[in-house]
Amino acid sequence: MSALNIKQGSTSHSAYELRDPHAEIVETHTLAVMVDNEAGVLARVIGLFSGRGYNIDSLTVAEVDHKGHRSRITVVTRGTPGVIEQIKAQLGRLVPVHEVHDLTVEGPAVERELALFKVAGTGERRVEALRLADIFRANVVDSTLESFVFEITGTVEKIDAFADLMRPLGLIDVARTGVAALSRGI
């Protein structure tokens, strides 16, 4: 009898199937939070996440209504569906929060990120970096004899793919803005 089939008549499971089949799936969600643009609001929102052990994958914030003094915080976070619902409910209860939108479930949304990549290299590596930048529609925003700084905009997956290809070519530094997102349509 195999080591995986200990009980008489039990079903055999692959040794590679280590995930609990009854565990809830962890999902990534993009939340748009409209808040008052005043001191301490961002700290309160971040405090909600850190105080409960929730992770923030990406965070962007900027004033979007100068007259109304409102800012939009875009947060990308991960959790089970229950945890995501809990995060949205807790955000909605914060006093400076006016609206919480889960762009992941409310319908189609546009998500983009801006990144800057510094790549050092000469000769063939330099030529290959320029070729890949062209394929990814990255712009050269700074150039020296030994390095380039590329600017690229796109989805998180596109930015990650570009980074993966630039690493062996001499990637030495990266700066990313975090995700900015809006729902599609009206």
Automatic annotation (TrEMBL):
CDD domains (alphabetical): ACT_AHAS (cd04878)
Source organism superkingdom: Bacteria
UniProt EC number: 2.2.1.6
SUPFAM superfamilies, A to Z: ACT-like
Gene Ontology terms, MF aspect: acetolactate synthase activity; acetolactate synthase regulator activity
Catalytic activity: 2 pyruvate + H(+) = (2S)-2-acetolactate + CO2
Functional note: Catalyzes the conversion of 2 pyruvate molecules into acetolactate in the first common step of the biosynthetic pathway of the branched-amino acids such as leucine, isoleucine, and valine.
Keyword list, A-Z: Amino-acid biosynthesis, Branched-chain amino acid biosynthesis, Transferase
InterPro entries on file: Acetalactate_synth_ssu, Acetolactate_synth/TF_NikR_C, Acetolactate_synth_ssu_C, ACT-like_dom_sf, ACT_dom, AHAS_ACT, AHAS_small-like_ACT
Entry coiled-coil feature ranges: none
GO CC terms: cytosol
Pathway: Amino-acid biosynthesis; L-valine biosynthesis; L-valine from pyruvate: step 1/4; Amino-acid biosynthesis; L-isoleucine biosynthesis; L-isoleucine from 2-oxobutanoate: step 1/4
Entry annotated with the keyword Amino-acid biosynthesis: yes
Record-annotated ACT domain positions: 30-105
Descriptive protein name: Acetolactate synthase small subunit
Keyword Amino-acid biosynthesis: yes
GO terms for biological process, alphabetical: isoleucine biosynthetic process; L-valine biosynthetic process
Gene that encodes it: ilvN
Record note on quaternary structure: Dimer of large and small chains.
Family that this chain belongs to: Belongs to the acetolactate synthase small subunit family.
